[in-house]
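Notes, p. 3: input format for complexes.
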Amino acid sequence: MTSKLPQQFRELECWVEEWGIEDGHQRYVKRVNSTMEQLKAFYNDMFPRGKEAIEYINQFDYSEPLPEDAANLRNLVYSLITVALAVEVWRQPRVKHSANTILTRIC
Amino acid sequence: MSDDPIVKKPESGFWHDAYPELGRGPISLEDSVCPEFYEKEKEHVFRKNWLCVGRVEQVPKKGSYFTRELAILDTSVLVVRGKDDVIRAFHNVCPHRGNKLVWQDDPFKEMEGNAPLLYCRFHGWRFNLDGSLIKPSRADLLLDFDGSKCSVPAIQCDTWGGFVFINMDPDNKQTVRDFLGEFADGLEGYDFDGPHQVYKFKAELQCNWKIFMDGFAESYHGPYLHANSFGALTEVAKMDAANPYTDALAYQLSGPHRMFSFYGEPSKETPFSRPIEKLTESSPAGPWNKKPSDKPLPKGLNPTRSDKYGFDSFQFFPNFVLIFSSSGFTTHLHWPTGPHSHIIEVDMYFKPPTTHKERISQELTVSFLNDIVLEDASPLEGMQAMLNSRALTHFHANDEEILVRHLHKVVQDTVEEGEKEKNKNIIAKQGG
Ligand code: FES
Ligand SMILES: [Fe+2]
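Output follows (539 residues plus FE2/S2 (inorganic) cluster):
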């Protein structure tokens, strides 16, 4: 069986199913439908490996599709960005004072 | 290019003194509340001016097309690149009995694609990409039928800077370039062609379209409305005096169009950078430490020639906002869906990344901007509801709100003149 993440990121594999989301809109929807506890749990596991993950992904040629395990890792980094804004900026899943308005991300 | 500023604030210290015809008093807010005004605005503002509906990249090849569902024009618009490479616009309707021509599955969903001809699913009539009839089905049944008078109804279409515009006014004689006027002169030479990395967002908000545009027509709301996103930075920026962090570098009005130029520094690490910004080496202003482009800016950008220049925002009449920053350009299109609601479309056109790291830096910029747009939008639905209460009849605009004043004045004047013209024509008809 192939693994979901590159060898050195194995301990993050438990997050792939939940947060390995390639589609930008789905990532955002997932964020606003999560509790702060859920967002922080992902952030706390993912953030410390962020630098290393970006360096790992960056070794690949941008003009070629990423291998599946590296693509999963990149999707986790994208989710880290989405989630970090809730954790670091708003301190809540949604933008402060935005009621239930969100933008639909088309691409 | 000369480095002389092409815009300077009047000696008096008030931008309004450069435009005395604007007035200075309270502004009627009927134009954002009244359903009857909305109907007139539809007729005189939206149906008589050039409207941006997309980009030429959306119709890359002969036969490429896209549709736009535009409630404010009470129509669906079909934009097609013809066999002759001319980009045309049509009402998306079959001239046989009026079936909607191009759609799949849901008639109210916008779509894009490529087709060798236009085909109507109802009775199988076929049309060329220029709208002319190729062949009705069942030619044996036709009665008093002139095929040359049976084309897909055309709408005037023109392009500028790679943007596709339509104009619903059959009497319009002005090109879009002339319509955009001296601001377009100043943008001559800007590299609109791309390729671009495109990020697109949209939402329907329960507020009048002008209320949203007003929020992007001044920047001194920064330390207040953006207190959460800009955090400690905003404490520095709150002051009851001329403020280099929040006041525009320049405001300019040109016919029905307007722009402001805003302060900024190259995106880089600051004492206020958040952990995720440090990790991705990026901020809402764009990826850090990008080397500035070696191409000179067109003369209309950074009109004060400030070395602390961040972005320029042009509001082209009526509903097309074009913002230039070091990341590229961003458009906001505002499509009213009623007197108290509209769809906002935010499209960002960045330089294509060449590494995964660059793509991740852009993701931070785009995600952060998405949230800031929501922060900008956050007061608007409550505000619209209170305007609808009619507790107020007017609102106030200070000197930094000169573009807000201008937008409402141009819309109100356009409606007033349009109504006058219409009544004159009615009287002339009755008299003659
Ligand atoms: S309505 Fe289009 S072919 Fe009849
Ligand atoms: Fe703002």
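Residues 402-431 of chain B form the longest helix (30 residues).
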